[in-house]
Amino acid sequence: DSTSFAVRVAPLGGTGLILVLAEDQTERRRVEAVRRDFVANISHELKTPVGALSLLAETISDASDDPEAVRRFASRMKHEADRLTSLIQDLITLSRIQGAEPLSEPVEVSVDTVVEESLDAVRTAADTKRIELVSGGVRGLTVMGDEGLLITALRNLVTNAVAYSPENTRVAVTVQTSDDMVEIVVADQGIGIPPQDLERIFERFYRVDAARSRATGGTGLGLAIVKHVMTLHRGEVTVWSKEGEGSTFTLRLPRTDSPEPPGSTGNYQE
Ligand code: ADP
Where are the stretches annotated Disordered (predicted)? Predict the structure, then answer.
């Protein structure tokens, strides 16, 4: 990568001297490119379900004398509309945590509640695939932050664990501590993630297999949201995975009783 500089020439009032300022353009260009890609990606992701809805609406009006076909098309329209809703919901969450709105004051959040609420959200999906959901480990721990965002982050992980696992497997959520951190570990016995994709899966809209992700209702934003929520809480998310064996995602958050508690105002980072 080459670095490029923009040179700005500023006269120093009345002295006859000029000041030459070199500004690093590389970072600015990179940020602009990321923003352009993001908008292009959003447009593409929105066009797909809207295009499908439009086609289905045409088809359904041609099939009005066949009630069975109408029912089938209507159910596919519902599916596409649900996809749009999840995508819009994820975009709202992302823009909120990226600073579009001030966050609420951090409060003490029960890790048990975060785990229970997240598991409740995937129970039906897990039952359908006969996936066993288990939770265990240390109880009664707390962290500082936003309960809703922490539930969203863990729910995204368990939703993926169920979505990318075959039938009759197990998804386990375990809470443990390490030094002054709380660890919430989500382990599945699913398809796993190829090593070359591992470091990219936290990028917005990055998917290992786009068709599979869409088929399971994925928006491609889930892990980007998890990463941002962890940053806001001065935590981190890490992943271990082996293809055909499964994946383990770990959320690590400062314990409330840690020697260096997170700040009490604004963004939770400082
Ligand atoms: P998506 O909505 O596509 O699931 P995410 O941001 O949540 O988007 O995840 C990005 C990609 O990472 C997924 O498309 C999938 O390829 C991969 N992935 C995430 N979690 C898992 C998992 N538990 N097992 C296998 N692959 C996963």
Answer: 249-270
pTM for the model: 0.83
Tell me the C-alpha distance between 27 and 208, whole Å. Answer: 27
What is the whole-number distance in angstroms between the Cα of residue 207 and the centre of ligand 1? 6
Per-residue pLDDT of the chain (270 residues; tens, 9 = 90+): 556 677 777 777 777 777 777 777 777 888 888 788 888 888 888 998 999 999 999 999 888 889 999 999 999 999 999 999 999 999 999 988 887 566 778 999 999 999 999 999 999 999 999 999 999 999 999 999 999 999 999 999 999 999 999 999 999 999 999 989 999 999 999 999 999 999 899 999 999 998 888 778 889 999 999 999 999 999 999 999 999 999 999 999 998 865 454 554 445 554
Tokens 């958050």 map to which residue?
253
Pocket test for ligand 1, best of 88, 158, 164 (most atoms within 8 A of CB): 164
Q: Which residues contact 13 (CB under 8 A, 6 or more apart)?
A: none
Cα–Cα distance, 127 to 129 (Å, whole number) = 5
DSSP 85-154: HHHHHHHHHHHIIIIISPPPPPEEEEHHHHHHHHHHHHHHHHHHTTPEEEEEE--S-EEEE-HHHHHHHH
Q: What is the ipTM of this complex?
A: 0.98
CA 29 and chain centroid, separation:
25
Task: Indicate if ligand 1 lies below 6 Å from the C-beta of 247.
Answer: yes
Taking the centre of ligand 1 as the mean of its atom positions, its distance from the CA of residue 107, in whole angstroms, is 30
Q: Determine the distance separating the centroid of ligand 1 and the alpha carbon of 201, expressed in angstroms.
A: 7
Mutation pick for ligand 1 pocket among 191, 213, 226 (CB with most ligand atoms within 8 Å): 213
